[in-house]
Each structure stands twice: as C-alpha cells, then as structure tokens.
Input
Amino acid sequence: MTAPGLVVVDKPGGITSHGVVSRIRRLAGTRKVGHAGTLDPMATGVLVLGVDRATRLLGHLMLTEKRYDATIRLGVTTSTDDAEGEVVATADASRVAELTADAVREALAAFVGPIDQVPTAVSAIKVDGKRAYQRVRDGEEVELKPRRVTVHDLVVHDVRLGAEVPELTVSVRCSSGTYIRAIARDAGERLGVGGHLTSLRRTAVGPFDLGTSRTLEQLDDEYSIIPIAQAARATFPGVDLDEAEAVDVRVGRRIERELGGLSAVFAPDGEFLALYEPRDQGARPVAVFV
Output
C-alpha cells in the first residue's frame, strides 16, 4: 500500500502542475495524488502534493500563506498579465522614462494589506463550472469579480528603469488565492504605463520551502515522501491525546479539549488521527484520517 504523505516538489518551468501530479502518480504507484495550489507553466518553485489520504490535508494547506520572488516588466501590457500572453498595449517610451524608483516603490506599497483583487482572466477560477482560462481560449469575454486577499509583505529589491527593458524584482508574502500576475498588472496601471510578470518563483507554501523541496530529477533517482504525521505536525498545532480520547477521535466524537484553533491530534503512539477545531466548549472534528 502507498504510504500517505506529502511530496514537496521544486517545479521547473515549462510543465503544468497537472504534469507534476502525473509524474508523482507514476512514482508513488497510485492515482490518488493532488496538489495544494496551481503553479502556471511559466512559474517555478514549491508545489506541495498530497499522496493517498494526505490529499485530504490539501484543502486545509491552501489556507496558509505563500511566498514568491517575481520580476515585473513595466511599459507593456499582455493578455495574460505575464510574459506568455500577447502584447495588447505598449506605453509611450517618454512616459516610461519619466518614472522614478520612488514612484515605483510607492505604487507597489499600495498593495500591502487586505486588498480586493480582480484575478487574471486566464486563472483557474471556475465560472459557471468552467475554468476561466478555458473560456478565454474559447473566445469568450471573462469578467471575474474582485476577491479579498491579503499581501502581508511586499519588498521591492531592485528597480531598473534606465535599462532597455524597465523592470523590478520583488518578494511577496501573501494569503493563498493572491495572484502575483494581478499585482504586476495593477501596479503597471497605477503607474500609468502598464505592466506584466516576466518570472515567478514560489519560495514557500506554509512551512514548506525550497529547502524541503526536491526536483523531479532527484525524485526520479530517489522517491521520498514526508509521512502524513510529520506533515501534520509541521503544518498545524499538535495535540497528543490519551488512549480514551484517541478512541473517541477515531469515531469522530467530540472531546473535552481546549484548542487554540484548528489542530492536528495524535494517538499516544504518534499516529496522526484527525484535524479538530474548538467548538461547543470542547473540540469537534473537521476531518478524520483513520
């Protein structure tokens, strides 16, 4: 039987997230593999995948924050808000030349905090049961509603305005569901010259970062998985139960425990049993994994 757990991949560019899922299905010997948040083919970096029962952890992992390094080009707007789309507008060179580094940093600072962000039209968001990007490919006009997301930190590392290709590099720490392409687009609009994303690297998903990831080539040589109990302890506050409590948890009963929030609960032998949350002056199950 395939061991349940997480596989943290450093996704290369040029492959879809589904393509990575297919590779892990082959290595794990099971079709029960899913991922916690899509990365576009152009993007690289941390992609967290669940194998077997651990796929049920993924919906909860998507509530955690993510980190990215990105490069934004100014002066050019594309149909996809990134370098893979068609150029739809190019700003006048004199307007771009008037930009200052301080103005660029001020524009980006406006996106820190809770914001209502309109996702890019070629996102994976479903509109009436169909992915937005598929509707765009089919020639449909897609208008997505703003979504509340949070950008915790946005650090501008370098602003290169005098170069032939004016661009800047940033690091972003944000809530799940934030589109870095949309930040590039909106920052360009705010500056009056347009903009798009030219590179994106996800550096962390919750507690999993590039240091815990493996390339596909490394996994081909030596397939490795983070056991589900270890993954749960790394992702959620852990609570060790006594034997009587563990019996109740195995059948999804309420337990008399004060929890600070969504927590992973474990049997006395260390087996991961369930995710519980505070409710009704005790704790009740969100998901049971045994």
Observations:
- The first helix runs from residue 17 to 28.
- Residues 5-64+206-229 form a domain with the Pseudouridine synthase fold (CATH 3.30.2350.10).
- The chain has three domains: 5-64+206-229, 66-204, 236-288.
